[in-house]
Predict the structure.
Amino acid sequence: MAAPTSFSNRTAIVTGAAGSIGEPLCFALARAGANVVANDYGCSSAGDGSSAIVEDLVKKLRAAGLSAIADTHDISTDAEKIVDLAIKTFGRIDIIINCAGIIIYGPIDAQPISAFRKVFEVNALGAMALIHYAWPHMKKQKYGRIVNFSSDSVFGMPYSSTYVLARGAMLGVTKSLAIEGKADNILVNSVGPCAFSRMCADVIGDLPTDHQAAFKATYTGESNAPAILALASEQNKYTGQTWVSGGWAMGRTAIMSIQEIKGLKTVDEVLKGMDVLMDKERESIEPQSIEDYLSFRAQA
């Protein structure tokens, strides 16, 4: 029987640490030997509230004899301070799990631009800022594991455009960072986890009561931990991929390119060509870089 994956002497920053997915991740990482920097600023789905919840989490971690420190900085404005605290306390950063996320529901025409800005600054720009400030440390030590959070909502979820905009942004940038980091053993993946939380309570609120109960029982925060820890582990060999987790399962989301049609010189030709391009049997590839994509286009 293989030995359990160890995170001994590794330092992990987990944002959104006190949430339904973040908390079990912190416990799982710490129990596997990691030093955990548990970051959380707010506790409501819209990012409002008290950061005292993460301090309580760290008290529980330490009471269990685990290594953790609480960080209450706002990732959207103070990512550098989160990195500074990790380096000052533990001397290195090996893992970033960009779990933090907020959502503001509403129809597109009812959402102020400030709502889009607020969600984007936490879910996307905050995550990127944390990576930006941690990257030199990972590069110097020739080691890093980054897990960005995307979402199944990128397949289309109405009244959630603020959230989908930000989570969708992590798909392409994860692939770009993976290419940049490969030479320095910095592996970057994204994951779309599924768990019952305050954030998704409104989404399933219209389901029958028994369906809601089944969702809560199946898609727990804990049921995402094995997949996310695998991506954060030294044993992981994959980078630049988008995975899905939840319900003690793991899947993968692929971004495909369909073979184009050349020589379309009129609108009518293009309209007919669109029907052909929607054919699921048409040749396609899953590019792993812009070079792969351009090479495929050139072959058409």
